[in-house]
Structure formats: C-alpha cells, structure tokens
UniProtKB/TrEMBL annotation, chain A:
<feature type="domain" description="ABC transporter">
    <location>
        <begin position="11"/>
        <end position="262"/>
    </location>
</feature>
<keyword id="KW-0067">ATP-binding</keyword>
<dbReference type="Pfam" id="PF00005">
    <property type="entry name" value="ABC_tran"/>
</dbReference>
<keyword id="KW-1003">Cell membrane</keyword>
<dbReference type="Pfam" id="PF08352">
    <property type="entry name" value="oligo_HPY"/>
</dbReference>
<comment type="similarity">
    <text>Belongs to the ABC transporter superfamily.</text>
</comment>
<protein>
    <recommendedName>
        <fullName>ABC transporter domain-containing protein</fullName>
    </recommendedName>
</protein>
From TrEMBL, chain B:
<dbReference type="InterPro" id="IPR000515">
    <property type="entry name" value="MetI-like"/>
</dbReference>
<dbReference type="Pfam" id="PF00528">
    <property type="entry name" value="BPD_transp_1"/>
</dbReference>
<keyword id="KW-0812">Transmembrane</keyword>
<keyword id="KW-0472">Membrane</keyword>
<comment type="similarity">
    <text>Belongs to the binding-protein-dependent transport system permease family.</text>
</comment>
<keyword id="KW-0813">Transport</keyword>
<feature type="domain" description="ABC transmembrane type-1">
    <location>
        <begin position="106"/>
        <end position="303"/>
    </location>
</feature>
UniProtKB/TrEMBL annotation, chain C:
<feature type="transmembrane region" description="Helical">
    <location>
        <begin position="32"/>
        <end position="56"/>
    </location>
</feature>
<feature type="transmembrane region" description="Helical">
    <location>
        <begin position="129"/>
        <end position="152"/>
    </location>
</feature>
<protein>
    <submittedName>
        <fullName>ABC transporter permease</fullName>
    </submittedName>
</protein>
<dbReference type="InterPro" id="IPR035906">
    <property type="entry name" value="MetI-like_sf"/>
</dbReference>
<dbReference type="Pfam" id="PF12911">
    <property type="entry name" value="OppC_N"/>
</dbReference>
<keyword id="KW-0813">Transport</keyword>
<dbReference type="Pfam" id="PF00528">
    <property type="entry name" value="BPD_transp_1"/>
</dbReference>
Length: 328, 343, 295
C-alpha cells in the first residue's frame, strides 16, 4: 500500500513524562517509534497502563499541562513535512480533526451531553474551512448515514443521551470522519460496547481503510487487531517491545511478552488452558534499569536482562526489544 | 403533563412544610420563658413607654388567643385566619397588621440580597474562569488566596470589618442608619464578600472539572482553539451547575440580611424578625418566620425548575422537550438505567 | 488501597496505614494549612490556660478606669466601659467561644452519626423520618431555627450549645447517611456480609472507618460554623449572658463603642477573624488531603 517513500506519520523515540502531585516524575511513555503509511493500518497493542493512549494523545498534543513530550513525530504530506512535537497551537489546530481524526473509547463521555449532535458534527467543518451551515449539515447527515445510522436527518437533531449505546458510538465515529481526515486514530473504540456493536464498528473501520484512510487502532485485544490491521506494535511500560507484520507476529511471536499476550488471549478454537502473564506491570516512577519486562519474564536470564535493552532488527520487517532475538 | 405533576407535587410539599414549620415555631415559642407583656412591663420603667397601654393590649391579645387554652388550641386559633392570609396585628406595632409590616419591609431586604447576588456573580464568574484558565499561575494562586479568605467572612463579620475600616478608621461611610444610598453601600458589600468567594471557588473547580472531561479532549481533537473550546464546550457546562449554588446562596443571603440589618440598622424584614424574637411578638415572629420559609422553598423550587430547563437531560425527563429519548429495550435499556443511577 | 485476606471470619480489611500517611504528607505539603493548624493549636492553648495567663479577673469591674487605651494603667489591651481588662476578657471569651463551638459540633456529630448510620444502613422508618425532617429543614433556615431555640432555651452556655447543635446536626446526618448508602454496596462490605459478619461488625469495622475522611472534612468545617453561629446569636442579643464573655458578645458589646474606643471591638474581632481564616484553610487542607481533585 505504501505509495510514497516517506510514511504519512513517522514517530521516532517518543517519550512522555508526567509531573505527579507529589513532585515525582512518572515516565508513561519512554521510547515509542511507529510509522504509518498513507492508507496503512497499524494496531498498537498492550495492557492498560502500557502507554498506548498516552502516546496517541501526545501525538495530537492533547495531554494535560503537567505532561512533557519529547522525541519526534513528523506528519508528511506530499513534499511538506510537519514536526508535531512542540508544534504551536495554531498550526496544531489545522492538523487536529482535519488531517488526523480521533475516535474515543466511550462515546457517552466523548460527546458533549448538553449540545445536540448537529453542532458537534458540524462545528469543526466550519472551523477548518469556509463551509456554509447548510453544506456542513449535509455532510454531517451523510457521515451519519455512512456509519449506518438510520434516519440521520432526524437523529442529527438529538442529544447524545437520546441515542442508544451503539448508535452513540457510531455517531462519535461519524464526528471524526465528517472532516475526512487522512489518518484516523481509534483509541479502543470497541472496548466499551457489546459484541454485536463491536463487529459493526470494526466493519466500518475496515471499510474506511479500504477506501484509503490510514487507521491506527489502539487495543488490548489481539482479535480486534487481527480483524483490521496489517502491522502491529506491542507496547509494554511505554516502550515498543516488538513491531512486525501482524500475521507474522501472531504466527511466530519473538518477544516473551508478545508470546505471553498470545498465551493469555482467549481462543475458542483452541482448548488448551490460558496462560496468563504473572505479576504486575512495573512502577512507572521507579523504573527497573534493565528490561522492563524482566520481573515477569519466564525466560529471565539475570545479568543480560538486567541491562537496558535495545530494539534489534530481525529479518526485513521486524524489530524486537530483547537480546535473545539476535539468535533468531 | 409531567411538568404539571412535578409542580403539583412540589406545591403540596411546600404547603406541608410550611405547616410543619409554623407548628414547630409556635410550639417552641409557647415553651419560651417570658412573654410580650412581661418584657414590655420590664422595659417600660426604663424607657418610659406607656406601660398602661401595652398591658391593656396584652389582655386584648390574651383574649383573642386565649392563653389559658392548651397550646394546640392556641395554634388552631392562629392557624385559622393565617390560612386566609391574616396573621393578625403585631404586639409591638399594634397599629399595623403583620402582613402590612412585612409588605413594607420585605422589598428592602430582597433588594439588598438580590443586588448582592448579582454583584457576587459578576465578581465570581470572571475570577473563577480566569483562575481555572490560568491554573497554577501566580494569578490563580493569588486570586484564590483572597477569595478563600473572603469565604471566612460571612455577612456580619464582613460588616464589622467594613465598619472598622471605612467608618471607624477612614471615616468615609456611616456605621449604620438608613437615609440615602450612602447607607446601603456597606451592607451590600458585606453581603457580597463571602458569596463572591464561595462562587468563584465553585466556578474555578467546576471549570477545571469540565476541562478534564473527555468531550473537551474530543473538541480539541477536532481542531478547536482554546478560546472556542472554552466558550462552546467548557463554560456552558461548567456554569450550568452554578444555578444550584445560586439558590442556596440567595436564601443564605436573605437570612444573612437578618444580621446585616441588625448591625447596620437597616429597616428590613430581618430586623423585624430579630425584634419580634427579642420582645416575643408572637404574631410578627410567626409571620416573619413563615415568610423566610416561603422564600427559601420558592427559591429551591425555582432552582430546580431552571436547572431542568437548562439541562437537556432533565428537560426530557420533565416532558419539556419535544424529542423523546430513543426507545431501547433489552440489555441497552438496563445499561441506560445504570447510567441514570450514577450521581 | 489494597485489600488483603486474613484467615478469620471478618476477613477483609482495608490497609489504611499508608493511606493515612499519604494524607498527612499531602496536608503537610500545604504550608498555609499547616501554619493555620499551628495557630489554632496556639489559640486552644491560650484558651485552656486562660486562668493562668489572664492578669485580671475578667468579670470584676473597676469603675476607676473605663474605656482606656491599650498599654495604659497596666491593661495590655485597655479596658471596657466597666473598666474590665480587655486582654483577660479576650482569653476567657476565646475559651467560651471555642468550648461552645467544639461541644456543639461534637454533640451534633454524635447525633448525626447515630441517625445517619441508622438511616443509611438500615433504611426503613428512620430513613423516611430523616428525609421528611430534611424536607422541612430545607424550609427552615438553620439560623432562624437556632434563634428561635435560643429564645426558648435562654442564654446559658449549654442552651446556646444545644441551640447550635440542634440547628446543625441534620445536614451532617444527611451526609453520613449518603456515605453509608454508598459504602454498603461496595464489594468488600458484601464480602464481609457473605462471610457472616453482623451489622454491628460491618458498621464498626468497615463502614465507619471508611467514612472517616468525609466525617473529618465536615467536622473541620462544622467547628468554625458553630463558632460563627455563636457570634451570630450574640449579634442578635442571644449570646452568653453577662457578665461572662465570649468572642461573640465581646464583638457585639464592642460594636456599641466602635467610634469611641475601636480597640474594644478590634481585638476580639481580630482573634475571631484569624480563627475563622485558620479554620477555613485547615478545612481546605483536610479536604484536599482526602479528596485530591487535581490529578
């Protein structure tokens, strides 16, 4: 699918620190590098607290004041390229919503409860371009129809709380799509909905991807990732543990953490018992000096694992943060 | 239809509460040592009041209420005319009915309280928003320090402070009395100070709370500028709950006028209440207490109603909105119920 | 908070020690609250040892000197119209005011605890009664009620305490009731019940310890409110009966002479205002320590 040399979004060594109430430094994201090609699809997988959502919000400059972001994230379109980290607010506004859309986990929270859908779906069209009220409304109604909401002309006048849960979720996706962004970041869009709605939303995203919009899917569910994405990045404790083609990673995981994730995923076709990963994710304030996964790793080897681990390239399309992968 | 039912229910509750308040007050006061006649007689010697007349009056009053009767009989005798709006004649101002006295004095108190609420809002809203918008800046810390200090000075404390500064020390304004606009300045400021502090703090924390909402992040994610998101998404939702605070504050101020009027000698209903309590002017005390209670309940009702009108969620619940909520059945309906339960 | 499982019957205990340590650290990091707390402790000590510190008897008049200025005739803060030493009266007045405020708040809290727990935990008749009473009290301003009660009960210290407590216990009972209703659905309480813990055990071991935060916060705002109520009653002529002094009655009496001898009102007012400020900041500190709103 890669049509250009440079990927649409290229993130190198992204890190996010928070200053806590007790004046400690909490490193939520330590080292994340990802790239998304135009029309590509990437899954970001990890447990809660692994820095998935934080790094996505950092890309769009949506973190609170007590966060500092470092590293680099470039947005490339044609010949122009924009550095997103540290981008001034005014220029960021032209990218958010317009170039990069975002879908949230819970529509009940992500839609303003006191404003009718119509204004929430049209306001950014009017911020971004000289679009008339009528034209904006027409596009919003079309977007609602596209995400499979029946009677969009009537429903667009409703308040979020007047819609059912699945309908709300789709309306929120429509809100991100109405401005036709080139990249959609979906932050666990199916976690808060039940299984039937989940399927509908995934089909919607597949459809979107097939029409050329790049999609980054943040999820903790490998099944969801497999349904939609070509590439996968596994995050743990704010670091990339493994990045690969999705099929490759599922068939032949290299990093012990990826193996652990696969082992603890429920597979109805496979009767063998689940093997959950023991222990808890590490403290983000007092980070272990060596491999972040060492305390929980079944292959803990002592000395070599206690050293900081680098990402090691394995084969043509794969990178793994584990010294063992040199042998692969 | 739902609105009518709501109003009807509240009206019944209002009447019942007023009955209980009147019975409670009447019962308690009948236990109080001393009576109007006794206090007047004791005071007559020193003040040179025509004691003969007040004793004469008291016997009239005793006849009318029948003080030899059991308390509940007395209450019944009071309640009958009171239900028709007749609270009888004041003991202390026998030329006027309680109703006339209240009608004459209420507007002053209401005006003081209303002006104070408006002033407090005019100070609190911009200060609170600015502090929240520039959170943790010196401006935020400084203004919140001052406004928090202000909350420690409700009504008469502020009143005394102002008198100490502007009357005793600077000699700019009179310590009390009521003959011209100059006399209203200190009472109004005294009433404004604490509510301004309370509301500014409320506005600040409310704005900060809304700023943390996911829909604000979503609005930024759509490309909204800080100003637009603040104006369109944050302020509206943050100021909505302010209505619920304004109500209690307004009633608090109406009660606060009792103290302010006593200190500054403002002729309002608060002063009337204090006076009535001091001399055991039963009809006047009952009348003023019930007026305070009525005001309180009306303000509460008004707050609930206005909140219902502002918030689309309750608007639908009250049947004020034309668009009904989406009918959902099965698990989704249960889910919706669970959401309702959350505070 | 981590839940750990012991062997015995009532097995689930919330590990609270570290939580309290963190709250204290959070409170301590608020310098304003810490200084305010120190100031209040100082006031309490002054009140406690008023008998030792006061140079004169607070209630003995000395008609040879009336309304003198501070630092004259051996009176640190001057004298009132009856020639009584303002400094001595201030110490005793502080003692009375603090005693009234603390006792009234404790009394109110005790009532509120009994009724609030009963209504919140058991529900039923008590709950209906409490809610009905609340409905009426919404129409009956606390102050009005206290004024009428004080009128009925007279001007002794204890009747003032009673008037203030009766006026304020209801809001606190409601708060405790709400807290009980919230807590009793929590899983560790259900777990305790499923293991056969009785109602009393549940209330004493789980519900009350876990409501301590909100209770402490209300108390820290309730004490200054009671102090304010005392002075409010004094303003309306319902303060402690003369010749005894409280900050409230001193302020009220001093107001008469505000233009003649401002010192008479200034000092009690100053102490009172400082105490109110200190209580406000301590209350703020306590609330922030328990309910960290900022992430």
């Amino acid at each position: 699918m890669q049509t250009q040399d440079r990927p649409l979004l290229d993130v190198r060594g992204l890190g996010v620190d928070f200053r806590t109430r007790d004046h400690e430094r909490l490193t939520a994201v330590k080292d994340v590098s990802i790239s998304v090609a135009a029309g590509g699809s990437l899954a970001i997988v990890g447990e809660s607290g692994s820095g998935k959502s934080v790094s996505m919000r950092a890309l769009l400059g949506l973190l609170p004041q007590n966060a500092t972001v470092h590293g680099s994230a470039t947005w490339n379109e044609g010949t122009s390229s924009t550095e997103l980290v540290g981008l001034p607010a005014r220029q960021f506004q032209a990218i958010r919503g317009r170039k990069i859309g975002m879908v949230f986990q819970n529509a009940m929270q992500a839609l303003n409860p006191t404003i009718p859908l119509k204004r929430q779906l049209t306001e950014h069209l009017r911020w971004h371009s000289a679009c008339t009220r009528a034209e904006a409304e027409k596009r919003a109604i079309r977007a609602l129809g596209d995400v499979g909401i029946p009677e969009p002309e009537r429903r667009i006048r409703m308040y979020p709380f007047q819609l059912s849960g699945g309908m709300r979720q789709r309306a929120m996706i429509a809100m991100a799509l109405v401005a036709e962004p080139r990249l959609l970041i979906a932050d666990e869009p199916t976690t808060a909905v039940d299984v039937t709605v989940q399927k509908q939303i995934l089909d919607l995203l597949v459809d979107l991807r097939d029409r050329g919009t790049a999609v980054v899917m943040v999820t903790h569910d490998l099944g969801v990732a497999r349904y939609l994405c070509e590439d996968v990045v596994v995050l743990y404790s704010g670091q990339v543990m493994e990045s690969a083609r999705l099929g490759e990673a599922l068939d032949r995981p290299v990093h012990p953490y990826t193996k652990g994730l696969l082992g603890s995923a429920l597979d109805l076709g496979d009767p063998s018992p689940l093997r959950p990963i023991g222990g808890n994710p590490p403290d983000l304030v007092d980070r272990p000096p060596g491999c972040a996964f060492q305390p929980r790793c079944v292959d803990d080897d002592g000395a070599r694992c206690a050293e900081p681990q680098e990402l090691i390239t394995v084969g043509a399309t794969r990178e793994v943060r584990c010294w063992r992968s040199i042998d692969e | 239809m739902q609105l009518m039912m709501f109003l009807l229910r509240r009206l019944i509750r209002l009447v019942l509460s007023l009955l209980v308040v009147s019975a409670l007050t009447f019962g308690l006061l009948s236990l109080a040592p001393g009576s109007f006649a006794g206090i007047q007689a004791a005071g007559a010697g020193s003040t040179g009041l025509a004691s003969g007349r007040s004793v004469d009056l008291t016997s009239q009053v005793q006849q009318r209420f029948g003080e030899d009767l059991p308390v509940w009989q007395q209450y019944k005798n009071w309640l009958g005319p009171a239900l028709h709006g007749d609270f009888g004649y004041s003991y202390k101002y026998p030329e006027s009915t309680v109703g006339e006295l209240i009608v004459a004095k209420l507007p002053t108190s209401l005006a003081l309280a209303l002006i104070a609420v408006v002033l407090a809002l005019m100070i609190a809203i911009p200060m609170g928003i600015l502090a929240a918008a520039r959170r943790n800046s010196p401006w935020d810390h400084g203004s919140m320090f001052v406004l928090t200090a202000a909350t420690a000075f409700p009504t008469y404390l502020a009143g005394i402070l102002l008198v100490l500064i502007f009357s005793s020390w600077l000699h700019w304004l009179p310590t009390g009395g009521w003959s011209g606009p100059r006399y209203a300045i200190l009472p109004i400021i005294a009433l404004t100070i604490a509510p301004a502090g309370v509301m500014a703090r409320y506005v600040r924390s409310s704005v900060l709370e809304v700023l943390r909402e996911e829909y604000v992040v979503a609005a930024f994610a759509k490309g909204g500028s800080r100003r637009i998101v603040m104006r369109r998404h944050v302020l509206r939702n943050a100021l909505m709950p302010l209505v619920t605070v304004v109500g209690p504050l307004l009633t608090g101020l109406v009660v606060g006028t009792i103290f302010i009027e006593t200190i500054f000698g403002v002729p309002g209903i608060g002063g009337l209440f204090t006076e009535a309590a001091q001399v055991r002017d039963m009809p006047l005390l009952m009348g003023t207490t019930l007026v305070f209670a009525l005001m309180l309940m009306l303000v509460n009702l008004l707050v609930d109603l206005s909140y219902a009108v502002i918030d689309p969620r309750t608007r639908t619940g009250l049947g004020l909105s034309t668009e009904p909520a989406e009918r959902t059945s099965g698990p989704a309906a249960v889910e919706a119920m669970m959401e309702e339960v959350k505070p | 908070m981590t839940a750990r499982t012991d062997d015995g019957g009532a097995a689930l205990v919330i590990d609270r020690t570290s939580e309290w340590g963190r709250r204290w650290r959070r409170f301590r990091s608020n310098r304003l609250a810490l200084v305010s707390l120190g100031f209040l402790v100082l006031l309490a000590l002054l009140a406690l040892f008023a008998g030792v510190i006061a140079p004169y008897d607070p209630n003995t008049p000395d008609y040879s000197k009336s309304l003198t200025d501070p630092l004259t005739g051996g009176n640190l803060l001057g004298t009132d119209v009856l020639g009584r030493d303002t400094f001595s009266r201030l110490l005793y007045g502080l003692r009375t005011a603090l005693f009234i405020a603390l006792t009234a708040e404790l009394l109110a809290l005790a009532c509120a605890l009994v009724v609030g727990v009963a209504a919140g935990y058991f529900g039923g008749k008590i709950d209906q009664l409490l809610m009905a009473a609340t409905d009426v009290m919404y129409a009956f301003p606390t102050y009005l009620f206290a004024v009428i009660l004080a009128t009925v009960l007279g001007r002794s210290t204890w009747s003032i305490i009673l008037a203030i407590a009766v006026g304020s216990w209801l809001t606190q009972a409601r708060l405790i009731r709400a807290q009980m209703i919230k807590l009793k659905t929590f899983e560790y309480v259900e777990a305790g019940r499923s293991m056969g813990a009785g109602s009393m055990t549940l209330i004493v071991r789980y519900l009350l310890p876990n409501s301590l935060g909100p209770i402490l916060v209300t108390t820290s705002f309730g004490i200054p409110a009671a102090m304010l109520a005392e002075s409010g009653l004094a303003i309306l002529g319902l303060g402690v009966a003369p010749p005894n002094a409280s900050l409230g009655t001193m302020i009220t009496d001093g107001y008469t002479y505000v233009l003649v001898q401002p010192n008479l009102i200034f000092w009690p007012f100053f102490v009172f205002a400082c105490a109110m400020l200190a209580f406000t900041w301590v209350g703020d500190g306590v609330r922030d320590a328990f309910d960290p709103k900022d992430e």
